Amino acid sequence: MQIAKVITEISAPWLSNIVLFLTLGLALDAVPAGLGAALFSGVLPMVAIVWMQRRGQVSDHHVTKAQQRSRVFLIIAVLLGILCLYLALVDTPREIWVIFAAAVVFIAVYAFITKVIGIKLSVHVGLWVCVYGFLAISLSSWWFLAVAATPLVWWSRIKLAHHTNKEAGLGFLVGFVLLVVASISV
Q1: Exposed, middle or buried by CB within 10 Å (0-12, 13-18, 19+), for 151?
Q2: Is the C-alpha dihedral spanning 83, 84, 85, 90 positive or negative?
Q3: What pTM was estimated for this model as a whole?
Q4: Boundaries of domain holding 138
Q5: What is the DSSP letter of 11?
Q6: Pick from 183, 14, 18: which is nearest to 101 by CA?
Q7: Which long-range contacts (CB under 8 A, 24 or more apart) does 64-67 make?
Q8: What number is the average pLDDT over the span 79-99?
Q9: Within 10 Å of residue 173's Cβ, how many Cβ atoms?
Q10: Would you say the C-alpha torsion 165, 123, 152, 46 has a positive or negative sign?
Q11: Residues 49, 51, 57, 60: what is their CA dihedral angle, to the nearest 10 degrees?
Q12: How many domains does the chain fold into?
């Protein structure tokens, strides 16, 4: 159980977003864009979730209850809207715009599937494959080593009873489809 907790924390979506955008910002000589994107897609969403947790609005920092996800998705959508304005003001390379657009679609699709269809997709699994796959395709094949860890992320979410195999699998599928679309767009 302890290993599953460690894997879940390491693969947390907010950390994946920080790694993604800081790496792209540094690699593409677009540090202001990378820092802003890491802040608005990683740091601030987690700050909001912790604040909501302390107020009793979400049960835990992984927002494991489907009925608690709507407000979190809305906050992230607002933060992504602000990020869009920021990215328009700084020198932002195409790769960051492409993965930013994928992030917007990601949140919209996950929110829709959770709210309307009633399936709580694994954000951990979907974002992991999308983020590290995108870094592997756009920057260096060495990032495929992180992609190879996707089954561990999947396993950890099931082991902790945060998701069913179906939820993790569908999370993977949606993340993978967004990765393919984003990669074609680069």
Answers
A1: exposed
A2: positive
A3: 0.95
A4: 1-184
A5: T
A6: 183
A7: 64/162, 66/114, 66/118, 66/120
A8: 98
A9: 14
A10: negative
A11: 50
A12: 1
pLDDT 10s digits, 10-51: 999 999 999 999 999 999 999 999 999 999 999 999 999 999
pLDDT cut 70: percent of the chain above it: 100
* 134: three-class secondary structure by DSSP: helix
- The distance in angstroms from the start CA to the end CA of the chain is 39
> Residues of 95-117 as b/e, b for ≥16 C-beta within 10 angstroms?
bbbbbbbbbeebbebbbebbeee
3-state secondary structure of 12: coil
Q: Is pLDDT above 90 for 62?
A: no
Read off the amino acid at residue 80: L
DSSP secondary structure letters along 55-66? TTSSSSTT--SG
Q: Scan for tokens 């912790």, then name that residue.
A: 50
Supply 3's token pair. Answer: 């290993």
Tokens of 24: 């792209």
Tokens of 93: 């390379």
Residue pair 48/55 in contact by the 8 Å Cβ criterion: no
